[in-house]
Write a structure and sequence with these properties.
single chain; 160 residues; alpha+beta; Aminopeptidase; seven-stranded mixed sheet; 7 strands; transferase; GNAT_dom; Bact_Acetyltransf; GNAT family N-acetyltransferase
Length: 160
């Protein structure tokens, strides 16, 4: 990551090239980390859907280069689910993920959410440590993750 260039976090089109490039990098990393969950390494890479109403999709950029992303989608009137949180390996440990989380929380509050939930994989210790440092607490699996032994879920209650 360039040393003196500022971090910019901005809303983006999740179906655009920059967002999809980060999503594909995250998917390749997940396939390598969890080969038991992705036996077909030649399967097509995932795509994004358009941002839903009361949703948010953000890019973290340094010098115009997309280094990270994060999003949320509504679960119900008071709860949003954080999704697509990813920072390129070469840009990690520089505060980008924490900055993305802070901006996602601010956007969630602006849209009147009072709670954020998220899911991550059991092998992603650094991500889980980040969520705990940022005030998230472990919860039981929810939604599509119920019964998935590889899932670890967290929540944070937001205060204006």
């Amino acid at each position: 990551m360039p040393a003196r260039q500022p971090l910019r976090i901005e809303a983006c089109d999740p179906c655009g090239a920059q967002a999809l490039g980060l999503l594909h990098a995250a998917a390749r990393e997940a396939r390598a980390l969890y080969p038991e969950l992705f036996p077909d390494c030649d399967a097509p890479l995932p795509g994004n859907t358009p941002t839903p109403p009361r949703g948010c999709y953000l890019l973290a950029l340094v010098g115009g280069e997309p280094l990270g992303c994060g999003a949320f989608r509504p679960v119900d009137a008071a709860t949003a689910e954080l999704r697509r949180i990813y920072v390129r390996p070469e840009a990690r440990r520089g505060g980008i993920a924490q900055a993305l989380l802070a901006r996602l929380e601010a956007e969630a509050l602006r849209l009147s959410y009072r709670r954020l939930v998220l899911e991550t994989g059991y092998k992603q210790a650094a991500a889980m440590a980040l969520y705990l440092r940022c005030g998230f607490a472990p919860i039981a699996t929810f939604g599509d993750y119920i019964g998935d032994p590889s899932s670890r879920c967290f929540e944070k209650h937001l205060r204006p």
